[in-house]
Amino acid sequence: MSLRTIITPPDPRLRRICAPVERVDASVLALMDDMLETMYDAPGIGLAAIQIAVEKRVIVVDVAKRKDDAASADPICLANPEIVWTSEERSTYEEGCLSVPDFYEDVERPARCRVGYLDRNGKYQEIEADDILATCLQHEIDHLNGILFVDHLSRLKRDRILKKFSKTAKLEHPFPKARAAL
Ligand code: GNR
Ligand code: NI
């Protein structure tokens, strides 16, 4: 297992449509293990492969987030996850993203969902989720389609956040006036 680097905007890879895995082989299992290690280290409650620059439809989720309590760690690893049902009812959560560090905003999504996926044994499973798990699964599946949580915000809020990640905005410029003109 190894700890991997999490990419941030404006890295264009965060906007890619990720490719399905053909089968859950040893390399996919190793990827899932690296993702779990990286997620627990961050710490976060979910991670999509593209966040560590791997363009595959693989996500891991553990809303319990008990890194140091191995007994209660209960991660789910999902290959080729697909939302097969969402509730009419919607709910709002304050979301964050390991690829958009330090920003948290309310996002409204379907309150419950059902997700089909291949498990670590390559077996098709479905999971029905509510609460934070439903939100997290939808957030992760968005990543596989190049969508970030900020895309669910108003254009004003989204642009304001993404601007903080643009190269020029990040530079420590010695002349604030010149920087403001950029
Ligand atoms: O750690 C995370 N927390 C979180 C909180 C509310 C809604 C979604 C999330 S997912 C996020 C980790 C992450 O960026 N996954 O892609
Ligand atoms: Ni995220």
Summarize the structure.
The chain is α+β, with helices and mostly antiparallel strands and 182 residues long. It has 5 helices and 7 strands.
By secondary-structure content and strand pairing, the structural class works out as: alpha+beta
Percent strand: 15-25%
Oligomer: single chain
Number of extended strands: 7
The largest sheet, given as strand count, sense and whether it forms a barrel, is:
5 strands, antiparallel
Compressed to H and E, one letter per element, the order equals HEEEEEEEHHHH
Q: Report the mean per-residue pLDDT as an integer.
A: 92
Shape: globular
CATH A-level architecture: Alpha-Beta Complex
* Physical arrangement of strands within the biggest beta sheet: 1-2-3-6-7
If you consult CATH, what is the topology?
A: Peptide Deformylase
| CA radius of gyration | 17 Å
Domain tally: 1
CATH superfamily: Peptide deformylase
What features would you describe in this structure?
This protein is α+β, with helices and mostly antiparallel strands and 182 residues long. It has one domain: Peptide Deformylase. The protein contains 5 helices and 7 strands; from the N terminus they run H-E-E-E-E-E-E-E-H-H-H-H. The protein has helices at residues 26-41, 131-144, 155-163, 167-170, 176-180; strands spanning 46-48, 58-61, 76-86, 90-95, 105-110, 113-118, 124-129. It has a 5-stranded antiparallel sheet with strand order 1-2-3-6-7. A two-stranded antiparallel ribbon has the order 4-5. The chain is globular and about 55 Å long. The N and C termini lie far apart (42 Å). The model has no long low-confidence stretch (mean pLDDT 92). The structure holds ligand GNR and nickel (II) ion. The site of ligand GNR has 17 residues, from strand 1, strand 4 and helix 2.
